[in-house]
Automatic annotation (TrEMBL):
Protein name: Germin-like protein
Pfam family, one: Cupin_1
Coiled coil region boundaries: none
Keyword rRNA-binding: no
Subcellular compartments: Secreted, Extracellular space, Apoplast
UniProt keyword RNA-binding present: no
Cross-referenced PANTHER family: GERMIN-LIKE PROTEIN SUBFAMILY 3 MEMBER 3 (PTHR31238)
Signal peptide range in chain numbering: 1-30
Length: 225
């Protein structure tokens, strides 16, 4: 390597790396930024828009701000996918504001699927409570990894990767998931591509999927698009 062989070469190399670091600083973290105070209960109704939500005045904070019972109820799975995601993100549970953490509850009917999706702002981990769940993820290099989980077993989905869960058991399935973001976001691939508003031009979808317009129309019609 140049660093070992040639002193003036290594000096140039070092200078180039230094300039690169100054111009394009490496991100110091890969999840939400750290909070700057003990807590900041989100004022989700505020007219101000910041990176997160403004804090509710500390004098108005009560015990209730630190607790949330929205995950105690089973979601209704009588829908297209046979699954229901109940979110406990900063919007539902403002106490999470700025803390870089959130959770979901996902209920599945037998055969139900949480369709391929990704979370642009978070790594996800989860534990299966009931049922038999196929969890799969696909890397940026198009390698597919999967496993069928039993209750008590966990999974992890690296930040941003496309993944899904499918109930492959005879009974209902239930999982609780956690994210290292107060608002992980979800790009649900089928809805994103076939049910956006306004819709993605047919010409883009026919070319991207190498099918004719009838196939695209049929898929769009399933999502009421
Ligand atoms: C999920 O369940 C809740 C509570 O039963 C229900 O209000 C909501 O419409 C369901 N969502 C979907 C997509 O079925
Ligand atoms: C679940 O949703 C379906 C479809 O919207 C509805 O017909 C049914 O009454 C709901 N079940 C419960 C328990 O709310």
């Amino acid at each position: 390597m140049a660093i070992v062989k040639n002193q003036s070469g290594s000096y140039v190399q070092f200078t180039v790396i230094l300039i690169g670091l100054l111009l394009f600083p490496l991100p110091s973290r890969s999840s939400d930024p750290d909070p700057l105070q003990d807590f900041c209960i989100g004022d989700t109704k505020s007219e101000f828009s910041v990176n997160g939500f403004p804090c509710k005045p500390a004098t108005k904070v009560t015990s209730d701000d630190f607790f949330f019972d929205g995950l105690s109820q089973e979601g209704n799975t009588s829908n297209l996918f046979g699954s229901n995601v109940t979110q406990a993100n900063v919007v539902a549970f403002p106490g999470l504001n700025t803390l870089g953490i959130s959770m979901n509850r996902v209920d599945f009917a037998p055969g139900g699927i949480n369709p391929p999706h990704s979370h642009p702002r978070a790594t996800e981990t989860g534990v299966l409570i009931n049922g038999k769940l196929l969890v799969g993820l696909i890397t940026t290099g198009n390698v597919f990894y999967s496993k069928i989980l039993s209750p008590g077993q966990m999974f992890v989905i690296p930040k941003g990767l496309v993944h899904f869960q499918m109930n492959v058991g005879e009974e209902k399935a239930l999982t609780f998931t956690a994210f290292n973001s107060h608002l992980p976001g979800a790009v649900v691939v089928p809805r994103n591509l076939f049910a956006s508003k306004p819709s993605v031009p047919d010409g883009v979808l026919t070319k991207a999927f190498q099918v004719d317009k009838r196939v695209i129309d049929e898929i769009k019609s399933k999502f009421g698009a």
